[in-house]
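User: Please fill in residues for this 282-position structure.
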């Protein structure tokens, strides 16, 4: 693949008001498209965040005709972009009362071309107002890594807490990942400590571009996220970034940067270990 591709990562401060969140997402997507982005990535939980876990389960969609997936499909079609839809809570028939945190990808015609269910769930205690996070109380984890063809090469998908588990991204790299889309909602505490260094590490060790949109602000009296949405190249350089609040972060991705990084340090040829698990078929 040759030529530059403009991409965008959208930073939001989503709340428990779905209609409001969709309105803000609509404006941010339109702004990214107006700036020439061909690939646009929304943050995790773009449509509902900061309320109760039970309410999130109540928002769960059962089919592609649900309002959130319909919104994503229509947005991709309207602007002629490839859209990575953050995460959508999707009902899991195998686990009543629980959802999958599903990241959908839509092509320029609004056709759903990929779905990744978040594998690693954030069950952590932190010194902040929320204190305890237990995603596994309401979310059923996914099982399979996902890559899909995109406008700037093969697109690998991950979500938020996945970022701390390098084996997933090695599995994606072994499947040909060129660019990683990482919708996230890192807390303020963990984001301040680790967000940028982890994003840059995943870019460097896999020699890929990383598009990492984050939530960025206060969502409720107890929920606050870090922001810091960033686009990083395969050498670990920050191409564009944001601080807090809503933002449209845009950068031009050059596939030659991946080839250049691999020529300088030939990791793929020198790697002595592969990911051998049920995540890799065969």
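Assistant: Residues filled in for all 282 positions:
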């Amino acid at each position: 693949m040759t030529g530059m591709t403009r991409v965008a990562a959208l930073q939001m401060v989503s709340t428990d008001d779905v209609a409001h969140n969709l309105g803000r997402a609509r404006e941010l997507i339109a702004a990214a498209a107006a700036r020439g982005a061909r690939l646009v990535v929304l943050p995790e939980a773009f449509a509902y965040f900061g309320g109760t876990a039970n309410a999130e389960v109540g928002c769960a969609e059962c089919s592609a005709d649900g309002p959130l997936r319909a919104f994503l499909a229509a947005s991709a079609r309207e602007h002629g972009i490839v859209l990575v839809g953050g995460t959508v809570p999707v009902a899991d028939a195998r686990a009543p009362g629980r959802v999958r945190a599903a990241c959908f990808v839509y092509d320029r015609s609004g056709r759903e071309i990929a779905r990744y269910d978040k594998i690693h769930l954030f069950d952590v205690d932190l010194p902040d107002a929320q204190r305890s996070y237990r995603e596994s109380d309401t979310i059923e984890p996914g099982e399979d890594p996902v890559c899909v063809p995109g406008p700037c090469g093969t697109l690998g998908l991950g979500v938020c807490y996945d970022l701390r588990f390098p084996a997933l991204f090695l599995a994606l790299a072994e499947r040909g990942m060129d660019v990683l889309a990482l919708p996230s909602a890192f807390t303020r505490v963990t984001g301040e400590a680790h967000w940028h260094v982890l994003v840059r590490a995943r870019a460097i060790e896999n020699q890929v571009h990383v598009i990492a949109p984050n939530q960025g602000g206060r969502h409720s009296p107890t929920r606050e996220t870090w922001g810091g949405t960033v686009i990083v190249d395969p050498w670990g350089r920050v191409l564009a970034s944001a601080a807090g609040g809503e933002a449209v972060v845009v950068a031009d991705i050059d596939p030659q940067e991946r080839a250049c990084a691999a020529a300088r340090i030939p990791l793929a040829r020198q790697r002595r270990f592969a990911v051998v698990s049920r995540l890799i078929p065969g």
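For context: Helices lie at 18-34, 53-58, 67-79, 166-174, 188-206, 256-264, 267-270.
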